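Q: What does the assembled structure look like for these inputs?
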Amino acid sequence: MKTAVLSVGTELLFGQITNTNTVFLSKELNNMGLDVMYHYTVGDNPGRLADMIRMALEDVDMILVTGGLGPTQDDLTKEVACQVFGDELVVNEKALGKIKEYFLRTGRNMTENNAKQALIPSRATVFHNDAGTAPGFALEKDGKYIICMPGPPREMTRMFEISVKPFLEKLSDGYMSYKLLRLYGIGESLLETRLIDLIDNQTDPTLATYAKEGECQLRIASKRSSREEADKAVQDMIDIVSERVGEYIYSCDNEELVDVVGRMLLEKGLTFASAESCTGGLVAAALTDIPGISQSFMAGFVTYSNEAKMRELGVSEETLREHGAVSEETAREMVEGLARVTGCDVCISVTGIAGPGGGTEEKPVGLVYIGFKYGDKCFVTKKLSTGASRKWIRNHTLLGVLDIVRRNI
Amino acid sequence: MKTAVLSVGTELLFGQITNTNTVFLSKELNNMGLDVMYHYTVGDNPGRLADMIRMALEDVDMILVTGGLGPTQDDLTKEVACQVFGDELVVNEKALGKIKEYFLRTGRNMTENNAKQALIPSRATVFHNDAGTAPGFALEKDGKYIICMPGPPREMTRMFEISVKPFLEKLSDGYMSYKLLRLYGIGESLLETRLIDLIDNQTDPTLATYAKEGECQLRIASKRSSREEADKAVQDMIDIVSERVGEYIYSCDNEELVDVVGRMLLEKGLTFASAESCTGGLVAAALTDIPGISQSFMAGFVTYSNEAKMRELGVSEETLREHGAVSEETAREMVEGLARVTGCDVCISVTGIAGPGGGTEEKPVGLVYIGFKYGDKCFVTKKLSTGASRKWIRNHTLLGVLDIVRRNI
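A:
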């Protein structure tokens, strides 16, 4: 079944708020095996809304609308739905009761325009709103459906889970299964080249590659008559892909690299410490964003100045003078000093030139040394990302550090 | 001028990624006085993309497209643009040179499909891509415009700022001047109340308030025949607003709070150090994102464990035992120890409960103590944000720390 998601609200067109409703609904619909063909956003304008719904329905079987069900004058989604689907608004006693009940419960006065929310198209299947006052509904005509839900994400998601999802499951054909693989250390072009035969000959499962800042994603999806078949088809393709690019895959479940590394550290019961110069605490900040990481993350140092490198980590003045703060030697002394001071199982150090200033012919902006120590294993990796911004270099270095930890613990 | 924003990418229809490009472009276009009428999203399907562009152009003068310019087979935006605007793709030597240069610079091999990115519609105005390989372009026909930009936000925003914005400014009628004021420590509703008479009676300049995580924005815009008039009208309104809520305004130029604080530290020639527990390096990471900050930022400590607090900052075991790691006493000993160890002019400490676990009746999740020391001035501020997520608490604490520095140096 082909669907489209339509968001109503001028605030979206102003860029004041991010459209999370569309992301939520798209995920849910795809996971149910319903194809999402389009996203639309239109302001609080009945004429344009009507045109957009008509236009969408030429191409899809169902349109899911969020917003414009509220009590105010510019909330006109219901009127438009009636206009397009040939119906009229009538007072829905049950909805009216729920609304009165809601105001009683929340101890607020029910204003005149709130009663307007109990008006529902006469032929509609009503979806009650447990988190607010505006009910939603589904309306059908000639095998085409419109499903209207309130705009506030809390109300919409709740209504979807409780009422809309079951309604859709009755209509859905087949089952869609998909996995999103995350890869680091391989570019999108190279990834596609490695998988080109699979991509060219794809029918089901389907494969799609996406570039994400500093990393790559590969989506593998299958639509079959049963959940089991779909899941198996996806898993079989994951196995084939893993044989070709497995070393780069850090997650088959769309996890962030930092979450994967954090989980590995916690599962293995390893303590962790970081000593950062050019990343200035990014590694520590990223890892400590994980709930419960205090079991593993013990201490972090942002040794930005040479003094701090010497004072906190015992980097020798001679090393800094002879090789400079950005050098393999300094990275090594940093990570060794960090292990000495903290006694943590896994230690990493980062020193580099994030720019835009500070680069030289011999040591350009983007040059980064990453030190790693875990037991007897201790090494320094050199990375160079040229022509990149300070932010990019720092974030890319963060991923580089995390990937080194992932590959070596 | 009426515009529409069109996003190309099946991953958006899958709900895999949030459409931040559309939010960014909508804000920018509105700020320039261009009306955004519609948002559209379509998958990597040339037929549907062409239909959607044609349909949009019946109603708007300009459509801004992001995505589908990459090197892979499903990147077809350029072909479609040519089809709709009656043009053909030709090799753009300058673009090809830039792409070759990019691969040379990054030391990666240029694959065949990368050369495809140098194909540009023959009549197009080319926008070069400083952050990636795919160039963007503008194409005009019968007074209607299409502007195509790459999908990755980093590349798109950079291209918009450097090339597209100036291109649009030439087309815009009259001159739009606007300032985005940033405020911290006042809620949107209170801000609106303080300015309600100005907002109700607005014609030109216009005022609009926006809530942003933990802070507020106030947009003041004026459209006049000359740049000077518009600029003056905006500045006069800023003066009026400043008289009412000046203490909360940290920027009149849409700067981030961290950039304002970083500049203040550098201008005053003050050295800075941080000791963080619950924020885990967020403060250090945010400040060290600023180019040249190494003149001020000397050292940061992420003392996550009690051992680290004692070892690195000399917090007494007794204090930790009697008052706990999250206490005014610990925050004070952290910041005093930090000043002792680093000898920096300005020192801050943070200790709190970011959750979701670790909260108690007496010390709930969201409780945070911020220590500040600058010369003789040394104090601890208690903050409590209830019912918030770990991420929100950490980010909100970061803003709180920065605002304390801003107000006290």
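Chain B touches chain A through 88 residues (CB under 8 Å).
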